[in-house]
Batch of 4 targets.
Target 1
Amino acid sequence: MITKERPMDKHRWIGFVAFRYLSRSKKRRQSSASVSSRFAIGGIGIGVFALILVIGIMNGFQMGFIESILEISSFHIRIELPSKDSLPVLEEGSIRSSLPFTEFQALVRGSRKNQQVALVRGLPANAAELDPAMLQALHVELGTFDVREPASIMLGAELARSLGLRIGDSISLASIAGDLFSEPRPELDRFIVTGIFRSNFYEFDSTWAFINLDRALVLQEGTGKVQLGIKLTDRWQDQALMQDLAKRYPELAGKITSWRDYNRSFFGALRTEKLIMFLLVALIFVVVSLNIYQAQRKTVLERREEIGLLRALGASVPAIQTIFITDGLMLGFAGASLGLIPALWFSENIALFFSMLEGVVNSILGMANTVAAFVLKSPVQHDGSFAFFSPQVFYIKDIPCRLVPHEVVLIYMFGILSATLAAVWAAFPLSKLYPAEVLQYDQ
C-alpha cells in the first residue's frame, strides 16, 4: 500500500509518475498531450527570452538617459548658494563630487550668421578635476574640455553643426538673462570654440554650451545664481543628506533640490513605460498558461482510471494533485531555462544580433531587387543600407542592453510560476474525483 511507504518513497513515486506522464509515449491517445507539452515549453521559453531582451534594451536606453541627466544636468542634489564662495562643508564619506555652477539662457550666433537660443552653463576652471564623471559623460569629440580661459566655450555637437562651427571658430553670445527690454540691443560677447562634445542625449548636444564660471556671472550682470551640484556614491541616499544639510545649515532650507524632484515627470514616464511594456509582453505567459491548463485538464480526463486506481491503492488527493503540479513545475522550469540561456547570450551580443537581422533583411531586399530586374526589367532601388535604428532617423549609435539581476530572476520565476499555477488550477478538480465512481464501470 502507498500509505505504508516512507515519506521519501512517497516523493519518489510522485516524481516517477509525474515524469512518466511528461515523457513521450507511443500510445496514440497520449501524443496530443506530448505535443501540447512541447508547445508549452516553447511558449514559456519564447516569453522569457522576449521579456528579458525587451526589458534589457529598455533598461539600456532608460539608464543611458538617466545617467546622462544625472551626470551632466541635474546632479543628485542641487543647492542654491547665496554666493560663489559660500560653499557648505560636506562629509567625504557619501559624496562622490561637488561642483559649483551657474546657468542662463543666451542667444548664440555662428559663422553663417544664423542664431539659436542655447543654455549656457558656467563652470569653475578646475571643473574637470572636481567632477571627472561629468567629463566622461560628455564625450568630448573634438578639442579639449577647458574653461580656464574666459573666452573659451564648449559646444554640443548638434549645436556646433547647426551654427556651422568648428574648433577655433569665433562665436557671438548675448545673455538673455534679466530684462531684455532694458536696452535696445544686448551687447554681444565673443568666444572661441575650444571643444565639441557629444553626450548622445539630443537635448544637451543641440542646446548646451559651457564657459568659465566668472565670465558667466559677469554676463548675467548680477542676476546670476550660483548652485552647488552634488553627486553621491549612492543616489538613493539623497534624502538622508538633504536632512543632514538642512539641520546643519538652516539658511539653506527650501533651497535644496533632489534629483527625484528635478526630473519627477520624466523619470515617472520612463517607469510607467517600462511597466506597461512588461505587462504587454507578459501576456505571452497568459496564453501559454491557458495552453498548459488545457493540456493538464485533458491529461486528467484521459487518466481517470489510473487516478482512480492510485486512489484505491491509498494515494491521497494532495499526492495525486502534486503529480500534475510537478508536471507544470517541470514544464515551467524547462521552458524558462530554454529562454533564459539564449536571452543572456543575445543581451551580451545585441549589436551582433541586430547586425544579423539587418543582413538577412538586406539579403532579402537584394534578392527581390534581382528578381524585379529579371522579371519587370525595372530593378527596385536598394543600396543594401537597411538598418533598424538608422543614425539618420534615431539619435543613437548602437543598441544598449543592460540586465538588472533581480529583474532577470523575477522574469525567470514568473515563467516557472505561470506554468505551475496553471497546473494547480487544472489539478484542483481532482478533489471531487472518487475512485468508486471511476472504477465501477471499468470491468
Note: Residues 1-5, 24-30 have pLDDT under 50 and may be disordered.
Target 2
Amino acid sequence: MTGRTPITNDPVILAPHREGRPNVYEGAPCPFCPGAEEQTPPEIARDGDPWRIRVFPNRYPPTEHAEVIVESRVHDAAFDELPADQAQRAVELYFERYRSLAASAAYVCIFKNHGRMAGASIPHLHSQLVGTPFVPLRPSREAEAFARAANCPLCDADHPLIAETAHYRWIAPRGAALAYQQWIVPKSHEHDLREPRELASIMQTSVRAMRTVSDSFNWSFVAFPHEPRAHWYVELFPRMAMIAGFELGTGTFVNTAPMETTGLFANFML
C-alpha cells in the first residue's frame, strides 16, 4: 500500500505489518538457519543439496513484490568469506530474480543491510529485492540527470579509481555523501542489469575492506530500466554513523571522512 507526502506528493510505502518481523538481535530464533526452513515461505530457488543459497518471498514484505536471498547456510558467515563460486552464484541469483520481478514492478531494488547499524534485524547473511509500483525518488532524479547530460557522467567523469577488472571500475565517487562510499560501475554503458560477470569478486573485496572499519555496511544496486541514457552501478558503504536530524531535515549529508577514500582500500587489491 502506498501513500503520498502532503507537500510534494512523493510516494510513501505503508507497511505496518513489518513491525511483526523477528529481531534475532533481541533473542528471536533465526528463521534463516538450516532446520528452520518451514519458518519462511516456500522457496523460489536454491543452490546446492543440501542448500548453500535459498531464495523465498519475504514473509513481511514492504510491497507486493519482495524476496529474500540467504547467501549461506552458516549463521555467522560474511559475504567476503564465501567461496568464490558461491558468491558468484549468489550474484547471479540477484540478476535472475531482478529480471523476474522487473516484469511486474515499475522498479526493483537489490540491497543488503549487514549489521544492526545498517538496519538489519537478522544477522544471518542475506540480501533483499523489493519491487515498487513506482520509480523511487533517487533513481527517478538520477535518470532525469542522465537524460539531460550531454555526455554520460559515469563514462566521462574522472573519479579516483580503487581497482578495475575486465568489465568493471571500482571507484570512490567525488562528492560522496557518506564516509568511505564506493561505486562499482560497468565499463560499458549499460542502463539496466545484464550479466554479472566478475562483479561478485569485486563486491567480496569491497566487503573485506569495509569490515576493517565497521561491522555494519549497506549496498544497493541503482538501475535505470526506463532510461537508456543512464548508467547503472552498485553503491557500497560502511555504516560509520547514524543518519540523524540534519540529514533527515535537509536531505543533505555530512561526510566526515577524508576525501582520499581510496586509502582505505590500498591493501585490498583484486
Note: The CA atoms of residues 154 and 231 lie 7 Å apart.
Target 3
Amino acid sequence: MLRNLATSLINARDERIVTTLPKAKELRPFVERAITLSRRAQEVGEASPAGALHLRRQAASFFHAGNIQRAATTGKRGQLPMPRTAGVAALKRLFDELGERYKDRPGGYTRIYKIEPRNGDRAEMVLLELTEREDATA
C-alpha cells in the first residue's frame, strides 16, 4: 500500500494526494527516504557512477513496479509482463526533477494538511503534498 501511495504522490501532476491521516503519517517517512536517496545520488553521481546506480536501485524498491498483463482471450498470463510504467516514471521523476529540487534542503520534503472528514465513515482526511512545488501559491 505504501509503495502504491508513494508512486501516486511522485507521479501526481500537482504533487499532492488525498488520503487518510494514518496512511499519510506512515507514508511521510517512506517518501522522504526515497527523496533522500535521490539527493545522495545527485551528490555522488559524478564521482562514483556505480554508487549513484546503487542508490537508484535502492530507491526503486520504494515504488510500485506494475502488474502482469493477462491474455484477453484465454485469461491466462501473457508471455511478457506489462510495461512497468508507473514505477519507472516515478523513479525517473524522482532522480531527474526532485533530487535536483531538494539538493539544498536537509529534510522535510512533505507537508500534511487536514481537510474535512470523509462523508461515509467520518475518517480524518488529509492532503499530503511535496514542499517547494512550482505551482505553490502560498
Note: Residues 2-68+82-130 form a domain with the 50s Ribosomal Protein L17; Chain: A, fold (CATH 3.90.1030.10).
Target 4
Amino acid sequence: MGILCGATPATLSEVARQAAESNSFEIARQNLTRRGLDLDEKTVVRLTQGLGALSLRLREAQLQVATESQGKPGPLSGRRVVASVDGGRLRTRQPRTRGRRRTKTRYRGFDAPWREPKVLTVYVIDDKGRKERHVRSLHDATLGDADAVFALLVGYLRLLGAHEAAHLVLTGDGARWIWDRVEELVRLVGIPKERFTAIVDYYHAVEHLRDVTDLLSGWSAKRRRRFLVHYKRVLRRGDVEEVIAAIDEMCVGRHASALATERDYFTRNADRMRYRKFEEQGLPLGSGAVESAVRQVVNQRLKSNGMFWLEPRAEHMLHLRALLRAGRWDELIQATLAHHCSVGTTGPS
C-alpha cells in the first residue's frame, strides 16, 4: 500500500508539502485542518522529518551510483548548462550542556549560532544565454561545508549527464571556497576543459569596485561617482588588468592594506571576468539564479526573527524546500515511494 512513516503517500505528501510551503509548522497544521486533516503539530513535524529523512537516503543512493558509474547520457547531454553555488544564513539551536543550573522552568537554555547553508542550482540556457523556461531547474541545499555541496553538485551533474553537455558554466561570487574547487569539479564531472567556463558574477565585481570608492575618503562624491562609472565600463569590457592597475596606484596611505585586498580580489579572478568574451559566447554574466534560490529556499522558510533549527531538522527542510521551489515535488514523492518500497522499508519510526 506504500505506507511510509505511518501514513499513506497522499497524506505524507500533503503534510510535508504544507510544512515546507508554510512559514511555520503551526501554520501548516492550520492549513491541513482546513483541508480535513486534523493533526497536532508534533505529528506534522514527525511526518515532515520522516519524508525528509527518506528523501535524503534516496538522494545519497542516487548520487553514489552516479559518482561511481562511468557516466551515462542524461537530460543535460548536449545542452548548455549553468551550475551555481552560494551560501545563505540561518540560526541553529544547540542545547547547553554546561553553565548555569536550570531555571524555574527547568530548561537549561540553548545557544543559537548562525550557520551558512550552501545552496546549488543547475539550469539550461539557450544560445543567447537566456534560461530555457521549459526545462525545469534543479535546486538543492545542505548545512554541510563547501566540500559537501560540491560533492552534491558533482553527483547531480553526473546523474543528469552534464559530462556530455555542449557547454558547462559555473557561476558564483568571488568566495574562495567556490573557486578553489573548480579544477576538482571539472575532473570529477568528466567534462573536457574546453567545454567548461568559470564566471565570477559581474554584479558582485561591481560591488567590489564600489568598496574601492568607499575607501577613498579624500575624494569628493563626484570624483568617486566618475571613477565608478568609468571602471564599470572597463570591467564590462573584460579589461581587468586596467582595473587592477588603477587600484594598485592608490594602494598608499592608511587604506593601503584594504585597497590591496580589493586589488587581490580582481587579480585572482581575472580570467573569470572576461565579460565581453562571455557575452559574445552567449554565456550569463551573473549568478542571480542561485541568489534567488537562496532567497526562496532559505530566507523565506528557515530564516526569520525567533526561528531556530535543530541541525537534522534544518537539513531535512532545506532539501524538501529546495525540491518544492524547483517544481519537483511530485517527482520526489514518486521516486521516494518507488525506492523505499523496493527496498522494503517503511521509513523512520
Note: Residues 41-68 form the longest helix (28 residues).
